[in-house]
Automatic annotation (TrEMBL):
Matches recorded under CDD domains: RaiA (cd00552)
Domain of life: Bacteria
SUPFAM superfamilies assigned: Nucleic acid-binding proteins, Ribosome binding protein Y (YfiA homologue)
PROSITE patterns in the record: CSD_2
Name assigned to this protein: Ribosomal subunit interface protein
Residues in coiled coil: 80-107
Domain CSD residue range list: 111-175
NCBIfam families for the chain: yfiA
Organism: Nitrosomonas nitrosa
């Protein structure tokens, strides 16, 4: 994103050190959230009345997919402290944005339908044959509905599968007539 980073410094002398500091802060944001499209950082010292002293304002506009994150931090006498505060706020907003995006794109594990092939009630485990004919181990703790003790060989079950230490395992096992969406 280096070519889409813009740095504007107003009303103060330009400083390579200050610009390098800004680039470093933007780099840290990119390492945290790598989908930043653009970033414009403005550091300025607006004209104030004489009794207020020198105070810096930092504005950060971050372009992200489908949105823009805007941070304004005003009134600090040290530009590096103003930048730190502004980038901390930007990081928090990026975290919130990333959580919202993650919730929208949450991947649901596909469910399968099979039948209880063998069950060992006393030992607390069994095997389910899936639609592909492969057997999957399941433990009593992975039965959601009804209880493990009520399962019988031949019961139709819905389940998700995960790779376990010794092969495919069925998780979230539930009994009943199930129809998967086509």
């Amino acid at each position: 994103m280096q070519n889409r980073l813009r740095i504007t410094i107003r009303d103060i002398p330009a400083s390579e050190v200050l610009e390098a500091h800004i680039r470093d802060k933007v780099g840290k944001l990119e390492s945290f959230f790598d989908h930043i499209i653009s970033c414009h950082v403005v550091v300025e010292m607006p004209h104030k009345h004489q009794h207020q002293g020198k105070e810096f304002t930092v504005r950060i506009n971050i372009g992200v997919p489908g949105s823009e994150i805007i941070v304004n931090r005003d009134h600090h006498e040290d530009p590096y402290v103003a930048l730190r505060d502004a980038f901390d706020a930007a990081k928090r907003q990026l975290e919130d944005y990333a959580r919202r995006i993650q919730q929208k794109t949450k991947v649901h594990v596909p469910e399968h339908i099979g039948h209880v092939a063998r069950i060992f009630h006393e030992e607390g485990y069994g095997f389910i044959t899936g639609p592909d004919g492969t057997e999957r181990y399941f433990h009593r703790d992975n039965v959601a509905n009804p209880s493990f003790d009520q399962l019988q060989e031949g019961d139709e079950v819905k389940f998700i599968e995960e790779m376990g230490a010794e092969g495919l395992q069925a998780k979230r096992v539930s009994v009943g007539r199930h129809h998967l969406p086509e």
